[in-house]
Amino acid sequence: MSSPWLQSMTPVAPPTSANPGLRFMVYAGIVTGAWSGVVCLAIYGIGRLAGVPFLVVTRSGDPQAQVTWLAPLLVPIAFGVLGALAASLLLGRRRARLITLWVGTLLALGSAVGPFTQPGDVLWSTRIWLVVMHVVTWFLVVPQLARIVGDSEPGASVDRGD
């Protein structure tokens, strides 16, 4: 006899009352984004100690601007929350886990293009370190949000009459 909740990432089907909601998704986005921000800040610090200048050309047209230490800390949090809000639109839908994972991956790849398309006077060391931060943020945020939203898919939980 097969139970429909066996596709859930949790070993025992949670009750339907425990399905994630908007508040839980935003909380997950803050937590995963904060962890990613801390790791990216450490990567930024190591890069600065190694002599990476982190000078980039901004959209405002400045010749080159220094990436401040706050950006690696706050940008992953912002994108974690935005990703959680977007993923919450899929709560309770079929294939929510896969959609979240693939759309999040495509968005992360799209954002990682930015460092590679910097003008030639931006050092490759800066570009590579920035891409590493994008990969870390993807790794810590997207799969976790996909797992959480996937637990709300139809059949991923059981109604225990709670």
Would you report the number of β strands? 2
Compute the CA-based radius of gyration.
Answer: 19 Å
Number of helices: 4
Major β-sheet annotation: 2 strands, antiparallel
The strand line-up of the biggest sheet is 1-2
User: What is the overall shape?
Assistant: elongated
Query: Mean pLDDT, rounded to whole units?
Result: 87
Class from helix and strand fractions: mainly alpha
Strand residues, percent: under 5%
Describe this structure in a few short sentences.
The chain has 162 residues and is an all-alpha fold. Helix content is 59%, strand content 2%.
Describe this structure in words.
By secondary structure, the chain is mainly α. The chain has helices spanning 22-49, 70-88, 96-116, 124-150; strands at 55-56, 65-66. Strands 1-2 form a two-stranded antiparallel ribbon. It starts with 21 loop residues before the first helix and ends in a 12-residue tail after the last helix. The protein contains 4 helices and 2 strands. α1 packs antiparallel against α2 (70-88), α2 (70-88) packs parallel to α4 (124-150) and α3 packs antiparallel against α4. Helices cover 59% and strands 2% of the residues. The protein has one domain. The model has no long low-confidence stretch (mean pLDDT 87).
